[in-house]
Amino acid sequence: AADKIRLIPQDFFAELCEQIIQHLNHKIPGINTAELCQRIQTSGVDINIGDLAKVANALSFLFSTAARNNLSTEELVTSLGSGVSTLPKHAVQVIRHVWNEQGKAIAVSEDARTTATVGQFVDMKWKLGVAMSSDTCRSLKYPYVTVTLTVADPSGQITDKSFEMTIPQFKNFFRQFKEMASVLETV
């Protein structure tokens, strides 16, 4: 991850660190590495989303471990200097600044750690479509619903999961959502 950190410009690295701190503070559901990666690539840096996700995971581990051990800014920077000597100077400066400004607010309670292992639902989009024809069938006229769920995994990476359903499957899906809503109203 240290080699990839060298590629990331300081302003994007700072933005990534701040998003990770906000995620650890449960202020945002996750880090949208796809969007950040695209912006970094647009600025002329050759980095792929997998490498950026590795950097985000390493930083998330660093900040959560520092919070769990209640490290001061100087203790964190000292441990970075001794453990990961390959980090570029600008990265250490950003980590120092972000930790000094926002690190103490990280609430690493047992409850937060256990609930964060599931991931978090962020958004849902759907659309209705009709398959008109295919290579093997001239006239399908088959209606379907495409659902895209946006989910933040436990490490904070935001991903989209898409699936298609037939109309009867969608009606069952909708019925189950109505049941959940009625149960939630009683709580």
From TrEMBL:
Domain COMM, first and last residues per copy:
120-187
Matching entries from InterPro entries are given as: COMM, COMMD4/6/7/8
Query: Which GO molecular function, any one, fits this protein according to its record?
Result: NF-kappaB binding
According to the lineage, what is the superkingdom? Eukaryota
Family affiliation: Belongs to the COMM domain-containing protein 6 family.
Q: What does this protein do?
A: Scaffold protein in the commander complex that is essential for endosomal recycling of transmembrane cargos; the commander complex is composed of the CCC subcomplex and the retriever subcomplex. May modulate activity of cullin-RING E3 ubiquitin ligase (CRL) complexes. Down-regulates activation of NF-kappa-B. Inhibits TNF-induced NFKB1 activation.
Query: Could you tell me what this protein is called?
Result: COMM domain-containing protein 6
The protein's organism comes out as Pheucticus melanocephalus (Black-headed grosbeak)
Underlying gene: Commd6
